[in-house]
Amino acid sequence: MPELTYASIDQTVLNTLTPPKRYYWAIVAVLFLGVLVGAACWIYQIVVGIGAGGQNNPVAWGTYLINFVFWVGIAHSGTLISAILHLFRAGWRNPIARAAETMTVFAVCIAGLFPFIHLGRVWQVMYMIPYPNQRLLWPNFLSPLMFDVIAISTYLTVSSLFWYTGLLPDLAAIRDRSEGIRKKIFTFLSMGWTGAHEQWRHYTRGYLFFAALATPLVISVHSVVSWDFALGIVPGWHTTIFAPYFVAGAIHSGLAMVLTLMIPLRKLFSYQKIITKEVLENVAKTIVFTGLIVGFAYATEFFIAWYSHNAVEIEQFRWRATGEFRWGFYFMVVCNTLIPLLFLFKKVRTTIASLFIISLIVNFGMWWERFVIIIGGVARGFSPHAWGLYTPSMIEYGIMLGSFCLFFFLFMLFAKHLPSVSMTEMKETLDHGGSHAG
Q1: What are the pLDDT digits (tens) for 186-217?
Q2: Is 123 exposed, middle or buried (0-12, 13-18, 19+ CB in 10 A)?
């Protein structure tokens, strides 16, 4: 990036924080309307009962569990890009690390809503809190659901601290260029940052510490989510491949969401010199790699079912490819493994439009992957008399719409009110030379 200087990086990022134009508020208003729709549907479900959803017997978990797993997966790549690539000193992660970290925080928060939504009576969550009570009720710490609570709350805490620590120097830079109430707000947020040598020394060590701490969490969180299924005896779920399979899928979907967010952000905020095509190309190459791992996992599941000679497993996977939900299976295979292979062609992975379209397709396919695993498993169990189908209700669609709108609503607010690219880390890229940034 030879044309960038410290001053031009500061100016480009600070220009994004100027008062927004009408189109920005129009987008925010539309997204907020979607959030209201989702909230209204959730309130309706609380009043009427969980029967407002399309869940039934045997499909007791519907889109709520699908969306929970989907958003946890989206949250994965933020930390992957920020922490793991930081440890490996990959310079191309610097322009997109801040937005990816923010994506992680918002996605984990939204994922955490779905267990509450699925409870129906939200206040029943008190039974998951370990506190002494006269009925001697106590959470079952051997349950993977409790693993989830602990793993995801730890992941949210560490990811939030990692995100906020990285923000501190940039918040101080905004403070020094602000006046009035804005200066007071950023003075509070920057927590006394002066840029002294000792502060930089503690900052770099602290950031490295959080990166090292967050890295095993990337692996552990979605592994724990996979155990929600793998520790059960449901056909199609009870397999040892689920942990790496879920982790690879989570990274795959998260990388696609990074492209989905970065490409419009690059255009709206004139970040072309910072988020270069080379940066987006590197994300696309990583998507090819993770897509191949995901494809290998799909094939392995079928192979193991055949190799086991277990009639129930064989029937489960035969039905997955030929049954009532087969279109979901084919969406999953085509969108997640075949279409990303188009990135092998340099023209495709260096064209902004194709990068954006394929990122949307991968997100679509990853949602269907969760549908196939979750719905397919319980809908086709051991006993044929207990087989069933599932169709989401309008209430579930409304809540799902609200979750997506809430994610993009929060991201829009963040992008306009806080630095969406790390000025500090971009300057480090210049210090280390342009060759690392591509």
Answers
A1: 999 999 899 889 999 999 888 888 888 888 87
A2: exposed
Whether residue 38 contacts residue 402, with contact meaning beta carbons closer than 8 Å, is answered with yes
Round to whole Å and give the CA distance between 429 and 56: 54
Are 97 and 425 in contact, with CB atoms under 8 Å apart?
yes
Q: How many CA atoms lie within 13 A of 79 on its CB side?
A: 33
Q: How many CB atoms lie within 10 A of CB 14?
A: 16
Helices 197-230 and 63-79 pack at an angle, to 10 degrees, of 150
Here the tokens at position 304 are 């193991």
In this predicted model, what pLDDT tens digit does every residue of 344-392 receive, in sequence order?
A: 999 999 999 999 999 999 999 999 999 999 998 888 888 888 888 999 9
Tell which residue, 366, 413, 367, has the closest CA to residue 105: 413
Tell me the C-alpha distance between 235 and 27, whole Å.
44
pLDDT tier, 95 (very low <50, low <70, confident <90, very high otherwise): confident
Asked whether the beta carbons of 96 and 254 are under 8 A apart, the reply is: no
Helix axes 144-175, 63-79, angle to 10 degrees: 50
Instruction: Compute CA distances 356 → 168, 191, 256, 434, whole Å.
Output: 31, 37, 9, 25
Q: Which residue's entry shows tokens 């959803």?
A: 53
Look at the block and give the residue holding tokens 């990166």: 211
Query: In the prediction, which pLDDT does 361 show?
Result: 96
- Using the Cα atoms of residue 383, residue 389, residue 392 and residue 393 in order, give the sign of their dihedral: negative
Tokens of residue 108, six digits: 């984990």
Provide the 10 A C-beta neighbour count for residue 434.
14
Report the run of H or E that residue 279 belongs to, with start and end: helix 277-308
- Whether the CB-CB separation of 214 and 221 falls below 8 Å is answered with no
CA 25/CA 271 separation, integer angstroms? 20
Tell me the pLDDT tens digit for each residue of 313-330: 999 999 999 999 999 999
Would you say 349 and 285 are in contact if contact means Cβ atoms under 8 Å apart? Answer: yes
Query: What is the C-alpha separation between 290 and 259, in angstroms, rounded?
Result: 14
**Could you say which DSSP state residue 83 is in?**
I
Rounded CA-CA distance 6/93 in Å is: 18
DSSP string, 218-253: HHHHHHHHHHHHHTS--TTT--TTHHHHHHHHHHHH
Angle at 340 between CA 328 and CA 108, to 5 degrees: 70
Nearest to 422 by CA among 107, 79, 215, 170: 170
| Structure token digits, residue 285 | 């190459």
